[in-house]
């Protein structure tokens, strides 16, 4: 098929290790056309139980990493006339979710940073957007103490009549990565079957 896949690993909470990863990408492929910032972490606890380390850990991996990874991605993309950067958020950025303080706030930062990146990287031919997913049944959901309650809510209260599937999010990312989305800039596309439209 003429395609090649390589795995590059880095702790994205460590800016220097992330820079090394982008250098390896350049050495291997010589270019970068698409960067999807999908790595995430967080501490799921009530607000009054949070510690400074919980806040710093979550913000570093979810928000700070997007800024510095986008800088490195943009350096490679501008060499070939541009590219696409896509962040990943969640509905917890715009709605209260129990035990989600650190993650929700970090994802709100991702959405805000998306707008700034979109404006400042546009002259380099780089389009930046974010996809925000509704509840998707993945391993990440196992960390929620109220997992079953969340699933039932998504099943019964989503106007589309079903939970969001991983492919729903993937298809949105593929669209934003395509030429058809070239004039979409700095937007957060919510893929939740309409759940956030209701109380």
TrEMBL record:
- Keyword Transcription regulation present in the record's keywords: the answer is no
Q: Which EC number(s) does UniProt give?
A: 1.3.1.10
What InterPro entries does UniProt report for this protein, alphabetically? Answer: NAD(P)-bd_dom_sf (IPR036291), SDR_fam (IPR002347)
Q: Which GO terms describe its molecular function?
A: enoyl-[acyl-carrier-protein] reductase (NADPH) activity
The record's annotation in CDD domains points to: ChcA_like_SDR_c
Pfam families this protein is in? adh_short_C2 (PF13561)
Instruction: Give the UniProt keywords, A-Z.
Output: Oxidoreductase
* Annotated family: Belongs to the short-chain dehydrogenases/reductases (SDR) family.
Show the PANTHER family listed in the entry: OXIDOREDUCTASE, SHORT-CHAIN DEHYDROGENASE/REDUCTASE FAMILY (AFU_ORTHOLOGUE AFUA_5G02870), SHORT-CHAIN DEHYDROGENASE_REDUCTASE FAMILY PROTEIN
Protein's name according to its UniProt entry: Enoyl-(Acyl carrier protein) reductase
């Amino acid at each position: 098929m003429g395609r090649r896949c390589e795995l590059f690993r880095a702790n994205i909470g460590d800016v220097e290790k992330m820079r090394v990863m982008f250098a390896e990408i350049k050495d291997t492929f010589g270019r970068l056309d698409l960067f999807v910032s999908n790595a995430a972490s967080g501490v799921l606890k009530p607000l009054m139980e949070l510690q400074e380390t919980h806040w710093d850990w979550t913000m570093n991996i979810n928000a700070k990493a997007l800024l510095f990874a986008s800088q490195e991605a943009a350096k490679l993309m501008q060499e070939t006339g541009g590219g696409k950067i896509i962040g990943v958020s969640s509905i917890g950025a715009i709605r209260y979710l129990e035990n989600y303080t650190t993650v929700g706030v970090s994802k709100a930062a991702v959405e805000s940073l998306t707008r700034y990146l979109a404006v400042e990287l546009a002259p380099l031919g780089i389009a930046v957007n974010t996809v925000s997913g509704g509840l998707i049944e993945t391993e990440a959901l196992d960390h929620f103490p109220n997992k079953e309650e969340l699933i039932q809510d998504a099943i019964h209260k989503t106007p589309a009549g079903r939970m969001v599937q991983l492919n729903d999010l993937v298809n949105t990312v593929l669209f934003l990565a395509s030429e058809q989305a070239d004039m979409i800039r700095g937007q957060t596309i919510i893929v939740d079957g309409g759940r956030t439209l209701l109380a």
